[in-house]
Amino acid sequence: MCRIEDHFPYPTMRRGQAEFINAVLRSLKGGINVIEAPSGLGKTSGVLSAISCLSELEGAKFIYAVRTHSQVSRVMEECLKFPKVKMIALRGKGGLCINWKVRRIKNNFLMNMKCEELRKLGSCPYYPPKIREARRCHDPILLKGNYCPYYSSLGIINGYDAVVLCYPYLFEEELYSVLRGFNPDYLIIDEAHNLRRFWFSRIVATLELEKLERVLSSLCERWSDLMRSLQRSRMQSLEIPRNYLIYLLRECLSSSPKSFEHFSKWILSEVEGSKRIILEPPNLILLKEVDGSLEESLKRFKSVLLISGTWSEEVARGEVLEELNYERISLDRWGEVASFIVRDFTTRFEERSRLEFYRVASTLAELSEAVVGNMGIFTSSYEVLQGVLDAGFENMVEKPLFIERKDMDSHELSKMISEFKSMSSIGAILLGVQGGRSSEGEDFPGLQMTASIVLGLQLSKPNTLGRVQEILWRKYTRLEDPTLINACRSAIQAAARPVRAQDDIGFIAFVDRRFSYCLGMMPPWMRRGIKYVRLEDLVPSAQEFFNRRSPMKRVDVAEDMPSSSES
Ligand code: SF4
């Protein structure tokens, strides 16, 4: 039997944390299990306590899957506090390759091919790697030296009790095969409400037409003809017979220079691996056939634990079509929160206008002056974000403004987010998109974000891609209104950014009257006392909220507490 006090390294537990750890231990007795628990409760340290105990007690092996690479880093940092845990981070070549000729290639497929070619020729100076000393908490991204960190870490995985990795490793057989020999007993997945959506990304892939065109138009006239016909026909989308596209690509690429060899292999393998292909600017949509189901991937483990901060029982059972054990760690009070739904505004496409964008932009600018600490604005799409900017938002605000761009790479984005966080003492504004990387998986404790404004409900567009996604949700899940559920989930995730611990404060505004449909999915602490207001009422409400509280004091209190995980 596990004695958690022998494994938990902090002097005290957070509210609800003991309950959470017990639920984790109960869930690792078999089957597929879901635990819903609020963020900031100390879930990472709770999971590591259970790993520490069960690996010591029964020699159990774990896979701990998280959504992003920065979450992998956070788990590895937390590992250092648990003296009995032996854990390794499994990362891809994209983050680990130290050969600049390969590292600069952004596409994973092309990068792998180049790496393989260099290894075969014996031309990568960092390969074969020496098996280096294995650290207890081994994160290859921190290794310095002249040996390939990717291949050197693969050689030592089997000696660890737990592997922390990102979702793709779970479903891609080729990636999962690097774990051959590790033989995990348990799978723990964090932020598991993303799982089904992630699994669908294996069925529907989109390639940016603009990038393809840049290469293909220079190679052959036929591709340009195809694009021109689409434009002339004024059709929104066009299904292209797969065999015709393969024929066309082969012809275009047959006379391409040697430097296009890897690109040719990549694009042909993408198209050949697809069942149907649809041209819908700005994307080429590829529909693929997948072997097996999400549930089959989960059933290869003795026990699976799916953890989430926002996954109601009804929705979880609708998304995972297997018998589930569901537990909820419910805290009625979580942080000091005031929540609002704006009843006289919407970003509904038919009701958008320059005047309405001006109205919302000027209100949010005024609101930013009332906020103490940083404020996040999360729009339903990049179009809505642009609408706010076109209304002159940049010139209306006094505080530093950070804008998430669609084409930002993860390095650029994390640099921008750290800069935004560092400005919490003067107060800054982050303008991002719901479901984007800044609105999920990124924590903003204390003054790093005290107000979250969720602007517009993210219902999918009535285009082919939106319809395909709707069909997939209906085919593979039992959800009654998947589009609305997904939109509400992204909004709630974004709204919860400021409240990551029991002492955080959060002014939360859902700016779209349609958010009343999402009430049932909101956690109790967010839903409790929620008020319906006019857009213009937000400013006096924020003034009243921040005047009544002193976030500075709360941060001091939080800093006096024993540190625990940020999850
Ligand atoms: S062997 Fe390692 S360092 Fe060399 S190209 Fe491949 S991933 Fe990069």
From TrEMBL:
A GO BP entry: DNA repair
Ranges where the Helicase ATP-binding domain occurs: 3-245
Signal sequence residues: none
InterPro entries per the UniProt record, alphabetical: ATP-dep_Helicase_C, DinG/Rad3-like, Helic_SF1/SF2_ATP-bd_DinG/Rad3, Helicase-like_DEXD_c2, P-loop_NTPase, RAD3-like_helicase_DEAD
Database matches in PANTHER family: DNA REPAIR DEAD HELICASE RAD3/XP-D SUBFAMILY MEMBER (PTHR11472), REGULATOR OF TELOMERE ELONGATION HELICASE 1 (PTHR11472:SF34)
GO molecular function: 4 iron, 4 sulfur cluster binding; ATP binding; DNA binding; DNA helicase activity; hydrolase activity, acting on acid anhydrides, in phosphorus-containing anhydrides; metal ion binding
SMART domains, per database record: DEXDc2, HELICc2
UniProt KW keywords: 4Fe-4S, ATP-binding, DNA damage, DNA repair, DNA-binding, Helicase, Hydrolase, Iron, Iron-sulfur, Isomerase, Metal-binding, Nucleotide-binding
Protein source organism: Korarchaeum cryptofilum (strain OPF8)
Protein name, entry field: DEAD_2 domain protein
Any one Pfam family match given in the protein's UniProt record, by short name: DEAD_2
Keyword 4Fe-4S: yes
Top-level taxonomy: Archaea, Thermoproteota, Candidatus Korarchaeia, Candidatus Korarchaeales, Candidatus Korarchaeaceae
Transmembrane region(s): none
